């Protein structure tokens, strides 16, 4: 029987990896399902919309000052205002 560098049988590591992968896939699938279900709600009640708008506001407060002078927008007012 083949062993890994840690001294455990190789198939134990493969089973552990598959179990971890299954957990991540279940979590990812659940997040996608919740996002799809959230899209059926009214726009003012959607958690995904609030999260997106919150991310934009965070960028406006923190990202724009950091990038000021390095990135020049050709539109006035700029896209992020």
Q: What does this protein structure show overall?
A:
- This protein is mainly alpha-helical and 81 residues long.
- 62% of the residues lie in helices and 0% in strands.
- It is built from 2 helices and no strands.
- The longest helix is centred in the first third of the chain and has 29 residues, at 10-38.
- It is flat.
- The mean pLDDT is 80.
Task: Annotate the secondary structure layout.
Blueprint: H1 10-38, H2 47-67
Strand content: under 5%
Assembly type of the chains comes to: single chain
**What structural class do you assign from the helix and strand content?**
mainly alpha
Instruction: Identify low-pLDDT runs.
Output: none
How many β-strands, per DSSP? 0
Radius of gyration over alpha carbons? 23 Å
Q: What's the average pLDDT? A: 80
- Distance between the amino and carboxyl termini: 63 Å
SSE order, one letter for each helix or strand: HH
Question: Percent of residues in helical segments?
Answer: 55-70%
The shape, in one word, is: flat
* DSSP helical segment count: 2
Describe the biggest sheet? none
């Amino acid at each position: 029987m083949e062993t890994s560098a840690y001294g455990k049988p190789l198939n134990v590591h493969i089973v552990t990896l598959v179990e971890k992968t299954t957990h991540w896939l279940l979590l990812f699938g659940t997040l996608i399902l919740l996002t799809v279900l959230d899209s059926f709600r009214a726009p003012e009640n959607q958690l995904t919309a609030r999260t997106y708008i919150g991310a934009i506001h965070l960028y406006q407060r923190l990202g724009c000052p950091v990038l000021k002078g390095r990135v020049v927008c050709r539109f006035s007012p700029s896209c992020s205002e």
